[in-house]
């Protein structure tokens, strides 16, 4: 049986251990969440600017984002290992057919490690828009745009200003939502 003094000391020790545990837990949470919050704050935001960048297409030809000057460009970050990316292909085809006359272009930003697999997918599914090879855009995807979620789409205007970002796990524009958003943002078709 513990004396009153021993019981008080034991209770104080338990309290210190609990405080130490809670402090340690708080530090772990901060160390875990702060990098994620910082990374999220560094992702592209509406109103931000996408820098001009060079990329190599699937046939080995060099291009620049600035080659699309005068167009609205939907940057589509995808990979064959991404099921939701594959489901969006018909939607992107429809978007291009509906809105190309309104200035829309799509640029596929492939993230596959196996480019041959991606090339076969593009050919089999008759995807007509330009595709970048992953090694040519790795730096822009990882360091500049910080794309971590697939699919991600970023719509930029003719001056490369970001009009919307979809694909952070929270705000996702897919299917009909994507088509409606494009319809709202893109200018009317110019008459010949």
List keywords for this structure.
single chain, 192 residues, alpha/beta, Glutaredoxin, five-stranded mixed sheet, two-stranded antiparallel sheet, 45% helix, 17% strand, globular
Descriptive overview:
Helix content is 45%, strand content 17%. The protein has 192 residues and is α/β, with parallel strands linked by helices. It folds into two domains: 1-42; 54-185, Glutaredoxin (3-Layer(aba) Sandwich), CATH 3.40.30.10. The strands form two sheets. Strands 5-4-3-6-7 form a five-stranded mixed β-sheet. A two-stranded antiparallel sheet has the order 1-2. Helix 3 runs parallel beside helix 6 (175-185). It is globular and about 95 Å long. Residues 25-41 have low confidence and may be disordered.
Provide the number of structural domains.
2
**Mean of residue pLDDT values:** 82
* Helix share, percent: 40-55%
Poorly predicted runs are 25-41
CATH topology value of the largest domain: Glutaredoxin
- Report the count of strand segments: 7
CATH class of the largest domain: Alpha Beta
Beta-strand content bin: 15-25%
């Amino acid at each position: 049986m513990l004396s009153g003094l021993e019981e008080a000391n034991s209770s104080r020790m338990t309290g210190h251990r609990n405080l130490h545990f809670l402090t340690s837990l708080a530090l772990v949470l901060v160390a875990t969440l702060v990098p994620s919050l910082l990374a999220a704050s560094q992702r592209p935001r509406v109103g931000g600017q996408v820098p001009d960048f060079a990329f190599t297409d699937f046939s080995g030809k060099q291009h620049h984002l600035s080659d699309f000057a005068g167009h609205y460009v939907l940057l589509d970050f995808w990979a064959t290992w991404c099921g939701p990316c594959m489901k969006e292909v018909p939607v992107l085809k429809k978007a291009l057919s509906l809105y190309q006359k309104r200035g829309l272009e799509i640029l596929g930003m492939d993230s596959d490690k196996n480019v041959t697999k991606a090339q076969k997918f593009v050919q089999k599914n008759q995807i007509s828009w330009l595709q970048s090879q992953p090694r040519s855009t790795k730096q822009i995807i990882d360091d500049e745009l910080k794309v971590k979620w697939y699919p991600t789409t970023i719509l930029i205007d003719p001056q490369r200003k970001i009009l919307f970002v979809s694909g952070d796990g929270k705000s996702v524009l897919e299917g009909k939502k994507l088509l409606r958003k494009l319809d709202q943002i893109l200018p009317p078709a110019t008459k010949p």
